[in-house]
């Protein structure tokens, strides 16, 4: 049996709006198991609960209900985080630092030795295509360059488990292709990858399994190969849309 890297049981999160004085169920009874070396894509419309799920898995949010384990530890445990890489949806960096300086700073947070920090920063800047911009202030970076730097930072500690929230956001077609190439490389190295994305061609090409969230509930999980063969993302797109439409129709029936 494949070793479980991520396990959630009936995971739920309720947000409370002070302005509207209302409770909002952002995630409802999510049960998932992600195996070692698996690439899992979490899909859903805006507001479905994808980012909330990611934050719960990282320990950035505390669950209202249920349990979550990451690498055998409670989410957010320091021993798990040391083995995790994370790219948020909208990464923010100190604008006055250069890309090289920022990666060195990040390496210090992981207590990497100076020689290793320099070697790793050089290797990752080359991987994401930022070698020529290594000494440029980040404040002068485009959105796509910021995204590339975020990917580099998420891999600095050579993580076993990688969380990416919309990794191709802000990237042009060349950048998206480069990210897919990086994902394939990480898969070949046996990394476990969990990411959210709206871009179904990318999901179709690199994911082993997908999950679909709608209104905070997991309405489908399964192998990409069971939906589409040969990387035909249009079949995945049709499946995704029909699954969402069916869930919405059932929701309206239940509400009436």
Give a structural overview.
By secondary structure, the protein is of the alpha/beta class. The chain has a domain at 87-158. The chain has 8 helices and 10 strands. It has helices at 50-58, 78-81, 99-109, 114-127, 143-154, 173-188, 200-206, 233-255, and strands at 4-17, 22-35, 39-44, 65-70, 73-74, 84-87, 161-165, 192-196, 209-214, 217-223. The strands form 2 sheets. A 6-stranded mixed sheet has the order 6-7-8-3-9-10, with helices on both faces. A hairpin with a 2-residue loop joins strand 9 (209-214) and strand 10 (217-223). Helix 7 (200-206) crosses helix 8 (233-255). The longest helix is centred in the last third of the chain and has 23 residues, at 233-255. The radius of gyration is 19 Å and the shape is globular.
- Give the mean pLDDT: 90
Tell me about the largest β-sheet.
Answer: 6 strands, mixed
Number of strands: 10
What share of the residues does DSSP label as strand, in percent? Answer: 25-35%
Radius of gyration from the CA trace?
19 Å
- Strand order, largest beta sheet: 6-7-8-3-9-10
Structural class: alpha/beta
Total helices: the number is 8
Helical amount among residues, as a percent range?
25-40%
What is the end-to-end distance? Answer: 44 Å
Spans with pLDDT under 50 lasting ≥5 residues? none
The rough form would be described as: globular
N-to-C SSE string, H for helix and E for strand: EEEHEEHEHHHEHEHEEH
In summary, what is this structure?
This protein has helices spanning 50-58, 78-81, 99-109, 114-127, 143-154, 173-188, 200-206, 233-255; strands spanning 4-17, 22-35, 39-44, 65-70, 73-74, 84-87, 161-165, 192-196, 209-214, 217-223. It is of the alpha/beta class and 256 residues long.
């Amino acid at each position: 049996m494949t070793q479980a890297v991520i396990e959630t049981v009936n995971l739920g999160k309720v947000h409370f709006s002070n302005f509207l004085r209302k409770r909002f169920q952002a995630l409802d009874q999510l049960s998932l198991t992600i195996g070692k070396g698996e690439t899992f894509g979490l899909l859903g419309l805006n507001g479905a609960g994808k980012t909330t799920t990611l934050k719960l898995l990282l320990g950035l949010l505390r669950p209202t209900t249920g349990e979550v384990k990451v690498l055998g530890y409670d989410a957010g445990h320091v021993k798990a985080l040391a083995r995790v890489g994370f790219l948020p949806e909208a990464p923010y960096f100190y604008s006055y630092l250069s890309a090289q300086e920022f990666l060195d700073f990040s390496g210090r947070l992981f207590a990497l030795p100076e020689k290793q920090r320099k070697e790793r920063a050089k290797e990752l800047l080359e991987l994401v295509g930022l070698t020529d911009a290594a000494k440029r202030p980040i404040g002068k970076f485009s959105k796509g360059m910021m995204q590339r730097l975020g990917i580099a930072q998420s891999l600095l500690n050579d993580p076993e488990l990688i969380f990416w929230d919309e990794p191709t956001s802000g990237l042009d077609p060349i950048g998206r292709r480069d990210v897919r190439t990086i994902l394939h490389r990480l898969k070949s190295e046996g990394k476990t990858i969990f990411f959210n994305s709206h871009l179904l061609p990318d999901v179709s090409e690199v994911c082993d399994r997908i999950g679909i969230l709608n209104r905070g509930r997991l309405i489908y999980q399964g192998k990409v190969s069971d939906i589409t063969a040969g990387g035909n993302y249009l079949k995945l797109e049709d499946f995704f849309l029909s699954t969402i439409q069916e869930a919405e129709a059932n929701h309206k029936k239940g509400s009436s």
